[in-house]
Amino acid sequence: MSLNVKFGVSTWLWTSPFDSSTVSLFEKIKSFGYDAVEIPVEDPELINTELVKEALAEHSLKPIICGAFGPTRDFTHEDPKFHQTSFEYLDACFEIASELGAGFVGGPMYSAVGKARLVSPEQRKVEWDRAVKNLQKVCKRAGEFGLEIALETLNRFETDLINTASELKQLITDINEPQAKALLDGFHLSIEEPSIENAIAEVGDKLIHVQVSENYRGTPGTGQTNWASWKRGLEKINYQGTISIESFTPNVKELAGAVCIWKPLVPNQDGFAKEGLDFLKKWVAE
Fold first, then answer.
1. InterPro entries annotated for this entry (predicted)?
2. pTM, whole model, 2 decimals?
3. pLDDT tens string for the chain (286 positions)?
4. What sign does the CA torsion over 52, 35, 62, 155 have?
5. Which residues contact 107 (CB under 8 A, 6 or more apart)?
6. Are the beta carbons of 153 and 168 closer than 8 angstroms?
7. Do 93 and 56 meet the contact criterion of CB atoms below 8 Å apart?
8. At a CB cut-off of 8 Å and minimum separation 6, what does 6 contact?
9. At what angle do helices 121-144 and 165-175 cross, to 10 degrees?
10. How confident is the model over 27-70, as pLDDT tens digits?
11. Which superfamily is assigned to 6-285 in CATH?
12. DSSP state at residue 143
């Protein structure tokens, strides 16, 4: 059985932040055989939606909008100013996604990436409840734009709130809004989950986006990832969304530092994109 999926790649593989010059990558991305491009929104003001829309149409690429949740974007923070900053940022992301015809905005939008501490159960409950309450508002706002949100688990070194698929499922259940959906990223699953197949089953039909790289963030097919487990899980839930390659370049120092990539993972990033897609196409066809 082969999966009926599309393939995407994040522009983070080559550059950061996404701005008007980044659309020059679209021609190459299409020539490699991708169906979609992941657009990470670090600074919404850098994104000229008209320009991006034209480039997407020209190269027949589908847009996927992903948020970037730095230290100022945090729905679990005790200071409501952080919540307001997050609402305003996500509003801008929703506007971009809506104008470009993307169906959702994805990412770990509950908390700031890198907020990983040992907290008491009482403190964790307070922060969990803040995330739920704020994300209920986010969902309603997304609904006004005709969009969903795809919440992502992160590994224990990047957040202390949502590390596993079961925690993500609980968060979505507690939010209890139709717009709240799931995004699973293989890099984080390889650290946190005993079974990728079971993690996929856990979120089930809530899964609307998948990101992959290898366990070491390298080219798919070159590491220790259990691709058979991925395939069984996606087939079981009849996943029909996009599978995107997400990794990073060490050449953008700020981003590389944030994701702890201290040296090149491949000889060149184009090779990563081409070889990764070749592997994924063979994998789904087997």
1. IolE/XylAMocC-like, Xyl_isomerase-like_sf, Xyl_isomerase-like_TIM-brl
2. 0.98
3. 679 999 999 999 999 999 999 999 999 999 999 999 999 999 999 999 999 999 999 999 999 999 999 999 999 999 999 999 999 999 999 999 999 999 999 999 999 999 999 999 999 999 999 999 999 999 999 999 999 999 999 999 999 999 999 999 999 999 999 999 999 999 999 999 999 999 999 999 999 999 999 999 999 999 999 999 999 999 999 999 999 999 999 999 988 999 999 999 999 999 999 999 999 999 999 9
4. negative
5. 66, 67, 68, 69, 150, 151, 152, 183
6. yes
7. no
8. 35, 36, 62, 241, 242, 243
9. 60
10. 999 999 999 999 999 999 999 999 999 999 999 999 999 999 99
11. Divalent-metal-dependent TIM barrel enzymes (3.20.20.150)
12. H
Tokens found for residue 149 = 């949100």
Token digits of residue 278: 């070749």
Q: Is 221 left (phi over 0), alpha (psi -120 to 50) or beta?
A: left
> Which tens digit of pLDDT belongs to each residue from 80-118?
999 999 999 999 999 999 999 999 999 999 999 999 999
The Cα–Cα gap between 238 and 215 comes to 24
Token pair 């789904």 in the structure block, residue: 284
Answer for the pair 248, 256: CB distance below 8 angstroms, yes or no: yes
How many CA atoms does the CB half-sphere of 266 hold within 13 Å? 24
Query: What gap in Å lies between CA 190 and CA 279, rounded to an integer?
Result: 18
